[in-house]
TrEMBL record:
Residues 46-95 form the Cupin type-2 domain. It holds the Pfam family Cupin_2. Transmembrane segments: none annotated. This is Cupin.
Length: 118
């Protein structure tokens, strides 16, 4: 399990075409990619299971904890991106609720665009 950041603080200011915004790039793929949004209510859980393909979980709101194959949970918050390799066991839990985008693809490489969390 690796945790990256896509928060505003790590984004790049865009000014082309008279624009004024910050863009945090996340990933790029050429193969089939599935993207979904997960809504976990209070005491919600994405149970402990193996990733069938590499997965990237982007925390949009709320907070929770995640773990990989180790039993140690790591706190996540908006702007964090959690990456699990194919076949890696993992789990996500929240007490207060959490909303996240999940990206699944055979060719995810989040380190291409996002800094790893310190």
């Amino acid at each position: 399990m690796k945790i990256y950041q896509f928060s505003q603080e790590v984004g790049k200011k865009i000014s082309h075409y008279n624009s004024n915004f910050i863009m945090s790039r996340i990933t790029q793929t050429e193969k089939v990619t599935r993207i979904g949004c997960m809504y976990l209510e209070g005491n919600g859980i994405i149970g402990y299971h193996q990733a069938t393909v590499p997965q990237l979980l982007l925390i949009l709101s709320g907070e929770g904890t995640v773990r990989g194959e180790q039993e140690e949970y790591v706190k996540v918050k908006p702007g964090d991106a959690v990456f699990w390799e194919k076949d890696e066991w993992h789990e996500t839990k929240t007490e207060q609720g959490l909303t996240a985008i999940v990206i699944e693809s055979e060719e995810l490489n989040p380190s291409m665009f996002m800094p790893i969390y310190d």
